[in-house]
Write a structure and sequence with these properties.
The protein has 460 residues and is an alpha/beta fold. It folds into three domains: 235 residues, Vaccinia Virus protein VP39 (Rossmann fold); 91 residues, Glutaredoxin (3-Layer(aba) Sandwich); 112 residues, Glutathione S-transferase Yfyf (Class Pi), Chain A, domain 2. Helix content is 42%, strand content 17%. It has a seven-stranded mixed sheet with strand order 5-4-3-6-7-11-10, with helices on both faces. It has a four-stranded mixed sheet with strand order 13-12-14-15, with helices on one face. It has a two-stranded antiparallel sheet with strand order 1-2. Helix 9 crosses helix 14, helix 12 packs antiparallel against helix 13 and helix 13 crosses helix 15. 37% of the residues are buried. About 3% of the residues have low confidence.
Length: 460
């Protein structure tokens, strides 16, 4: 792989948190350089140790640990494709044991035990940090490295934490819950079964190295009473094998693959990794006027999405449904923060109400009309109307981040499918203006596998 291909891969990631050299001569554009944190742990002999990293993000620490000889398992609630982790694996040639899961709902028996557990920049994102540390203790047979935001001046002699209500966060990081003070952190670690060996602090951050402590029956009863009864009860209920449940049927997507509105869903499904089957419908395939199809979609149009008893039509409604089905913020595709989600929804509505009608005759005239039957005056007018729309998005992109709302979302998917029509060689006519920010955004979209598979093929 050459440096240019490496750069394209790095640029294909919607958001980088870690800033580090991921390829010789190439650094990731993250906002946080974690090298200084690694130096706090680098003096240890990691060879042969089984290490669990909780919340690996873009994989900087996993990479350093593997290079130091550790056997690394990663646990994150996000798919690695939603961060830079998958790009890191590809550029380094390494492959990690990457598990999807939430620390607070994890049964520790599913992972086994580890010589070292890394919990860096995670604890203050947990609504129940004590439970998180309790699970860490069940996973750990040696050392814990913990780094967290904390409140250095909050009643230093008391064991106390500051809760961050949503009304104070606004458009900030809504995943922050607690800023404990130093004493609270020490006490939680102690009650979870750790003994603190070393600590460093700077600003509102603190780093602690701890090891598992000797068994304390009272501590154990306290933790089990608080947290483990659900595990034990669930384990007892499932001790006797039950008949295997029938697998849930996959999503069914009705629509032909060359429809721009079906492309949106195929690309989104690729991003989310959801299983599905597609059935051709519309135009030459018919189907849409049959009574059975009209019972699903009274409008007789495509796409239609069927998920068990749930039926969804209108492509942008289907995009939202897929994200809601995936859960959380769908790997960043559909933000949870109300302001960010509203802006994504605004672009989806703009595509439907403004862009799509403007460009319709340009696409149909140049792609689906024989040359001898084209009305070039109508096509030119449609091109000019489309250009007025794309100029709006070009100005927005020029003033913002790499994608429409900074990170890659379903707004980029919906508008990217229409951008394929604008930039396609099939629709080029004299007088089409060039929009540099729009072109740069479109180039970034072309790097995504879902675009390459479903949107890039020739228009028809």
């Amino acid at each position: 792989m050459d440096i240019e291909e490496a750069r394209r891969l790095v640029a294909s990631c919607p958001h980088w948190h870690h800033a580090f050299e991921i390829y010789p001569g190439l650094r990731t554009p993250g906002s946080y350089d974690p090298e200084f944190m690694w130096q706090k742990m680098a003096g240890r002999d990691w060879r042969g140790l089984r290490v669990l990293e909780i919340g690996p993000a873009d994989g900087f620490f996993s990479l350093r640990l593997a290079q130091a000889g550790a056997m690394v398992t990663c646990l994150d609630y996000r798919r690695k494709e939603a961060t830079g982790f998958a790009v890191m694996e590809r550029l380094t040639g390494l492959s990690f044991d990457y598990r999807l899961g939430n620390l607070l709902t994890l049964d520790p028996r599913s992972l086994g035990s580890f010589d070292v557990v890394l919990c860096l920049g995670v604890l203050y994102h947990l609504p129940d940090p004590l439970r998180g540390l309790h699970v860490c203790r069940q996973l750990c047979r040696g050392s814990l490295y913990l780094e967290s935001a904390y409140s250095p001046d909050l009643l230093p002699e008391a064991s106390i934490a500051r809760f961050l209500p949503l009304r104070e966060i606004g458009e900030g990081d809504y995943t922050n819950f607690w800023f404990p003070n130093r004493q609270c952190l020490i006490d939680m670690l102690t009650d979870a079964g750790f003994s603190v060996l070393r600590e460093e602090s700077w600003g509102d951050r603190i780093f602690l190295e701890a090891e598992i402590a000797g068994e304390d029956p009272l501590r154990r009863r306290r933790m089990e009473t608080a947290y483990d009864q659900d595990f034990l009860a669930a384990w007892a209920r499932t001790a006797a094998p039950a008949p295997a449940a029938a697998p849930a049927p996959p999503l069914t997507l009705y629509g032909r693959a060359n429809s721009v509105n079906v492309m949106k869903l195929l690309w989104c499904l690729e991003e989310l990794g959801l299983p599905y089957e597609r059935r051709d419908a519309g135009m030459q395939f018919g189907v849409v006027d049959t009574p059975a199809y009209r019972a699903l979609n009274p409008h007789g149009r495509i796409p239609t999405l069927v998920d068990g008893e749930v039926v969804v039509w209108e492509s942008n409604a289907c995009l939202r449904y897929l994200c809601l089905k995936a859960g959380g913020d769908a790997g960043g595709l559909y933000p949870l923060a109300p302001g960010r989600r509203a802006r994504v929804d605004g672009w989806l509505d703009w595509q439907l109400s403004t862009l799509s009608p403007a460009e319709r005759h340009l696409f149909w005239g140049m792609v689906r009309t024989p040359p001898e039957k084209r009305d070039m005056a109508e096509i030119t007018a449609a091109m000019q109307a489309s250009a007025a729309c794309w100029e709006i998005l070009d100005r927005h992109l020029a003033a913002g981040g790499p994608f429409i709302e900074g990170d890659f979302t379903i707004a980029d998917i919906a508008l990217g499918c229409f951008a394929r029509r604008w930039f396609g060689a099939e629709v080029q006519i004299p007088g089409m203006p060039h929009f540099p920010a729009l072109a740069a955004w479109y180039a970034r979209l072309q790097e995504r596998p879902g675009f390459a598979r479903w949107v890039a093929p020739p228009l028809s």
